[in-house]
Design a protein that fits this description.
Layout (H helix, E strand, L loop, with lengths): L1 H20 L1 E10 L4 E9 L2 E10 L12 H10 L2 H11 L3 E13 L2 H25 L2 E2 L2 E7 L4 E14 H12 L1 H11 L1
Helix pairs in contact: 2-4, 3-5
Length: 191
């Protein structure tokens, strides 16, 4: 009987040790164009692939993001998350960003508005990169580009990144983030 209890206690401590020491790597690829929006997620522990998923995101035809409203949509999203901010920044402080590439191409069909939109896209990307550098544990290898097309009206953006986090911290962070919808409802009821 004591041997069984000893094995259970040893197994529990071994599991806790594995959860706190094992590093989880997550590779994320996001592609958005007029035709489709796709997110591809792959999670690895060391070299073992433990999770792989491709998600096709639904696009609302009435609220299509284009090169002109790209900045407004990003700002609208940022304004909509005041309650989320504290939990997200705490979660980001546990994450190492070892690779980040964000390339955007697009135009409005008019040279003047394309130029203005290109500047706005650079500004938004600069704000987001600054936010990531300030709040993440480590940020390496950033590639950011905006390529204007003065002849056509379209937008296409591609993001590829690789993040790493300790498995225990990932579990804790996900539990904290899962509480956010309840906090938003509570704030809505009180405000």
């Amino acid at each position: 009987m004591w041997v069984t209890i000893g094995i259970i206690i040893f197994s529990f401590f071994l599991l806790v040790l594995i959860i706190t020491l094992v590093k989880l790597s997550i590779h994320i690829t996001f592609h958005h164009s007029k035709e489709q929006s796709i997110v591809y997620i792959q999670a690895l522990i060391y070299k073992w692939k433990i999770y792989k998923k491709e998600l096709k995101l639904e696009q609302n035809e009435d609220k299509q993001i284009n090169y002109l409203n790209f900045r407004e949509e990003i700002l609208r999203f940022i304004r909509s998350i005041p309650i989320v901010y504290r939990n997200v920044t705490h979660f980001l402080s546990m994450i190492e960003l070892s690779f980040f590439e964000w390339k955007t191409k697009g135009g409005t069909g008019d040279a003047v508005t394309t130029g203005i939109s290109t500047g706005a896209a650079w500004a938004v990307k600069g704000i987001i990169i600054g936010f990531l550098r300030e709040h993440m544990k480590k940020v390496d290898d950033l590639i950011v580009d905006v390529t204007p097309d003065y002849q056509k009206s379209f937008i296409q953006t591609d993001i590829r990144c690789m993040i790493s986090i300790r498995l225990g911290k990932a579990i804790y962070g996900i539990l904290q983030l899962s509480k956010i919808p309840d906090k938003q409802k509570e704030a809505t009821n009180h405000g």
